[in-house]
Batch of 3 targets.
Target 1
Amino acid sequence: MSDKWTTANIPDQHGRVAVVTGANTGLGFETARALAERGASVVLAVRDVEKGEKAAARIGGEVTVQALDLTSLDSVRAAAQALRSRYDRLDLLINNAGVMYTPKQTTADGFEMQFGTNHLGHFALTGLLLDLMLPVPGSRVVTASSTGHRIRAAIHFDDLQWERSYSRAGAYGQSKLANLMFTYELQRRLASHGTTVAVAAHPGLSSTELARNSPAAVRLPLTWLAPLITQTPAMGALPTLRAAADPAVLGGQYYGPGGRLEIKGHPRLATSSAQSYETAVQQRLWAVSEDLTGVMFPVAPSHQNPMRSGPAIAG
């Protein structure tokens, strides 16, 4: 695979339908724009519809807007129902939206904000839309994680909602680790279907609004050093775009920037932390997520492990 993969490598997307969450700004916007420019029919699934309409106008092409607030399961269900009424198939679901280092707060359903938004909201949305993807050859669920899945990260089953104590970084790490574990377990369940695959990606350090809730001790140095250590949202979106569109991608893979420490650069295969591949934890997280969201997936668990104990590697 090329070491300099860019949007020029995206195959023609005419006839494909892509839903991109959090697509009115930053990485999601760049992802949606690149897909639309290659001919895809793109849905910007966003909390702020007015901003979404402005983003759609900037992109042009066949782009529509769908209201989606991932902090509310009622909103997730309403969005899924609206999409189901408009489309009889989906080719791409890109779970891009997220929050980072928020102060301690909860979603409308009482979940810790980062875990509820980044993981549970996307888990529910995927489960409610997956049957529109299963019959579609080449369909993909792409979920955005982060190098933060390695930082103070664990799935705290004894206190998933951080009710006893709260760490912004720890809660963010848990949510991004959950994104990866969800992808790997979903791929295991999808393997027997042979059509849809699940893939993950991370943007490295990109200059977006995501870090606006970071403590000043973190945010200010990043602001000063940004020109040296971060990359543009357009570059940061490339791993997600490669995961979504590169014909060589395999289910269960993880893409990130190819430069030093995966901070920036053109996208290539990445390897996530050892704990992200722990099958028993993935399966327990899945069961807990179904209980918390009330969403059951139309794919059964598999007793086989097509991912072995590590990432899938293209031949």
Target 2
Amino acid sequence: MKLKKNRIVLSIVFLVLGFMLSFSYQLTKTNEEHVVINDKEWERNTQLQNQLNELEEKNIRLQEELSQKQEKLFELEASVVEDEKVLGDLAKKVEKLRMILGQVAVRGEGVIVTLDDGTVDSNASDISSYIVHEQHVLNVVNELFISGAEAVAINGKRLTSNSYIECTGPVITVDGERFPAPFVISAIGNADTLEKAINMQGGVKDQLVNESIVFKLEKKDLIVIEPVLSKNS
């Protein structure tokens, strides 16, 4: 009977020991797996952090490159604007030169000055003092150009930088073409400015009237002066 009890006690002891060993094994295995998982997570986190650092460095480099390219683009845009301005100025100069040379038609507001021979006094000893001479026409033309006229024509004959005016008796020769009085001088420019310049007290108009020249001035909203015809046309 006592031997039987001892066997039961030993069985219980072995059972408890077996349970304890089994629990200890499971606990150790769980801890090891946990350690392995933590190591893998740490390695993964490290890789992700390294990738993030690389991306940040790459992003900084790209931003620097973008900034440099933007600066170059701004420089190119400024250069293009400057070139366009230079070309625009050149185009204006060329157009102005063509206008001076009489190569293009000009239209706009302006004035028309008409000069005619005066009525001869029967008692006058010098009839030529009542006739329009080249200096009379030249005085008007010069005053118009000085006052900003863009183009001037005499009896429809366009004047250029090479034009000449000569007096031959009762007629005036303009660039080889002869015109009798009256002489109609057309000028394109600011009409008010041109009118004031010609009518200025003690100016061109007063001189002409004092020399018995018939003088007339009209302001026009539109005057058209055609280009000079080339010899080959």
Target 3
Amino acid sequence: MSNEITVVAVLRAAEGSADQVSEILSRAVAPSRAEAGCRGYVLHRDRSDAQRFVFVEQWADMEAIELHRQAPHYQAMGQALAGLIVERDVMLLDAQA
């Protein structure tokens, strides 16, 4: 069985800040994809709720996720989002089949 981990992160932008949040999140995509342990990193915006954003990510292992969380672009994203996110749910998933 692989150590690969899928991350699904659901973020809800504060009212009136969705376009700003979209820009901030989008800036993190290319540098995240360039990380050694990244196997996939896709940002989505919900068609039925423009305030909701979903990252679907694949990482080689937990070490890769921890390195991602320490990366300068990830840290900058977190700082830029301060006060703009009202809900956040992050799931770390292991494939079962």
